[in-house]
Amino acid sequence: MKNYSLLFVIIYCLISGCNPKESTNTAINETEDALESRIDSILSKMTLEEKIGQTAQRGKSSRVKELPEELKDAVRKGEIGSFLNIMNKEDAKELQRIAIEESPNNIPLIFARDVIHGFKTIFPIPLGQAGTFDPELVELGARISAIEASTYGIRWTFAPMLDISRDPRWGRIAESGGEDPYLTAVMGTAYVKGFQGEDLSLPTSMAACAKHFVGYGAAEGGRDYNTANINNVSLHNTYLKPFKKAVETNVATFMTGFNDLNGIPASGNTYLLKEVLRDQWGFDGFVVSDWNSIIEMIPHGFAKNEYQAAEKSAKAMLDMEMTSTAYQNNLKTLIEEGTISENQLNSMVRNILRIKLRLGLFENPYFDPNSDILYDQKHLEAAKETALKSIVLLKNDNNILPLKREQRLAIIGPLADAPHEQLGTWTFDGEKEHTITPLLSFKKDSIYNFKYSQGLSFSRDKKNAGFAEAIQTAKNSDIILFFGGEESILSGEAHSRANLDLPGAQEQLITELHKIGKPIVLILMAGRPITLTNILDKVDAVICAWHPGTMGGDAIKEILSGKVSPSGRLPVTWPKEVGQIPIYYNHKNTGRPVVPDEYVHMDSIPIGAWQSSLGNTSHYLDLGYLPQYPFGYGLTYSNFEYSDVSISSKSIKKGDTIVVKATVTNTGTVKASEVVQLYFRDMVGSITRPIKELLRFKRVALDAGASKEIEFTFNTDDLSFYGVDKKWIVESGDFMLWVGKDAQDTTHELTFVIE
Ligand code: NOJ
Question: What residues pair up with 709 in beta bridges, in sequence order?
Answer without folding.
Answer: 663
